[in-house]
Design goal:
Layout (H helix, E strand, L loop, with lengths): L1 H15 L15 E5 L4 H6 L1 H10 L4 E6 L15 E4 L15 H11 L4 E4 L4 H10 L4 E4 L10 E3 L7 H11 L15 H5 L12 E6 L2 E6 L12 E4 L11 H12 L5 E5 L8 E2 L2 H8 L4 E5 L2 H8 L4 E4 L14 E4 L27 H4 L3 H14 L1
Parallel strand pairs: 1-2, 1-4, 2-3, 4-5, 5-6, 9-10, 9-12, 10-11, 12-13, 13-14
Antiparallel strand pairs: 7-8
Helix pairs in contact: 3-6, 4-5, 8-12
């Protein structure tokens, strides 16, 4: 019924909306491009190939990206972007924000006025409304709610395809040749090679410094000249509680390899237990570059680390790994249960309501020994 109503609403809107069917601008006439993406960090990271091909299609244009603050780190240092605008007041049906800040949305729309091309990678009702309010010369995007008629060209219907392919398909609506690119993060040299910290557990010998180009470190007394090398880096956090693996399991993995005299670090975010070192996404990525194995959950950070060529063990639960990039250095741990996502579905039934009726079995029943086995495989290969 919901899909039928969305289809009827779309048909009515398409009949009344006068933007549709206009001729696309030529590359030389596009001077400013606005990118809208209000999902999580991982989704924004997976859209970087589409951003790259848009820049290749419109080399004379400046590109500004509008994202939520939590996703900003995925785009810092990206050479294709002039500015990263953070806006946290847009309601997102995936991330469960309670309401849209319409006053802020109107102000943001005024800021985006004058765009020759607007590209919406989000597809939620509020982002479609923003695309309409901004009144760009031309726009592309998609929507599952029937609001895609606000775009000059839309991706419809939105089938269940891998996320990178979906974002590339939106970029292709603007004439970009979207293919052959993999997601990429751009770590500054300061981040990649100058994280001055002593071994975890002995205090931090560096002061974080914020800049428009990212977060880097300056050495303080007692700091080292290079990031400490760890054999195994375990990241315990995730954006959704459904994706979490019990922290005591991570502790068991760490204890197993520390007993073998391997150097193991547990890192996470501010919401993780007190003994877990709190680092930003880019700090973890920088630290992971010097490790033999990285272990993480189904998060944007895990995809970022894998993209850097670090041997990675990725632990999946409610998400079907088929819909995400597969890196040659990545080993996936996923337990197929009767309640798991089907072959042609990106998520299991628990994801839209963010409530699992099966006591989170896909993650709680995942055995520690299985993760240890995958780590051993990575250690042997490295």
């Amino acid at each position: 019924m919901k899909r039928l109503l969305a289809g009827l609403f779309h048909a009515a809107g398409a009949a009344l909306w006068r933007r549709r069917g206009r001729r696309a601008p030529t590359p030389e006439n596009v001077r400013r491009i606005g990118i809208l993406h209000f999902h999580y960090l991982g989704d924004v990271f997976l859209a970087t190939p589409a951003i790259a091909v848009l820049k290749r299609r419109f080399p004379n244009a400046v590109m500004d990206a509008v994202v939520k603050s939590r996703a900003r780190e995925a785009l810092l240092g990206n050479p294709h972007l002039r500015e990263i605008i953070c806006f946290d007041g847009l309601c997102n049906d995936r991330t469960r924000e309670p309401r849209t800040d319409w006053r802020g949305l109107f102000a943001l729309a005024r800021r985006l006025r004058g765009c020759d091309l607007l590209v919406d990678f989000t597809g939620v009702p509020a982002s479609c409304a923003l695309a309409a309010l901004a009144r760009p010369r031309w726009s592309v995007g998609f929507s599952r709610s029937g609001l895609g008629f606000v775009f000059d060209r839309e991706l419809r219907p939105v089938s269940q395809i891998p996320l990178v392919e979906k974002y590339n398909a939106v970029a292709a609506l603007a004439g970009a040749d979207a293919g052959g690119q993999m997601p990429a993060i751009y770590l500054e040299n300061e981040i990649a090679g100058s994280v001055g910290v002593p071994p975890l557990g002995q205090g931090w010998g560096a002061n974080p410094v914020s800049s428009t180009r990212g977060v880097y470190f300056t050495l303080s007394a007692g700091g080292t000249a290079a990031p400490p090398a760890y054999d195994i880096l375990l990241h315990v956090g995730a954006g959704f509680p459904l994706k979490l693996w019990p922290v005591e399991n991570f502790r068991a993995v760490a204890g197993h390899f520390r007993a073998r005299s391997l150097r193991v670090a547990l890192v996470g975010g501010p919401s993780d237990p007190a003994e877990i070192v709190n680092l930003t996404v880019r700090q973890v990525a920088a630290l992971a570059r010097g490790c033999r194995v990285y272990v993480g959950l189904d998060t944007g950070l895990t995809h970022i680390v894998a993209s850097l060529g670090v041997p990675t063990v990725a632990i999946y639960g409610p998400t079907n790994p088929r819909f995400l990039p597969r890196w040659p250095n990545e080993r996936v741990v996923w337990t197929m249960l009767a309640c798991s996502a089907a072959e042609n579905e990106q998520h299991c039934a628990a994801v839209p309501p963010m409530r699992c009726d099966f006591q989170h079995r896909c993650m709680r029943q995942l055995d520690v020994d299985r993760v240890i086995q995958e780590i051993n495989q990575c250690l042997a290969a490295s």
